Amino acid sequence: NELAPGDAERYSECIRHETIRVAVCDQVEAALKESPDCPAIFREQILKSFSESYDKYEEIVKGKLHLTGTTANTFGFTNMKYQYETLLTRMRGLREQVKQKCEAAAAAAEAVNALVLATDATAATN
């Protein structure tokens, strides 16, 4: 039950903003930093999920840019300002960091594979 018309939508908007800020961006940052707050077993999955869902997150944030700087006053979110421009910049930076980390991991795996093949070839000729 809404206390005032639009309360449910305003509450949903606050939850959407905070979910992207905390549950997405903060967790991706923790995974990239290999923080103890982000267990190693989850890090790869967090980064993979972020990469797979990035376009959806960006679309949501771009659609809400007009709310940047406005105040949310609803159900426990008092005087919270929407920061969608900041979120978009942050997400784009995280996307680049995730891409670089994935490329570095792929290069390292390729180097290991090449070393294993070279070792196997050397062993086969001896």
UniProtKB/TrEMBL annotation:
This is Ubiquitin-conjugating enzyme E2 Z. It comes from Rhipicephalus appendiculatus.
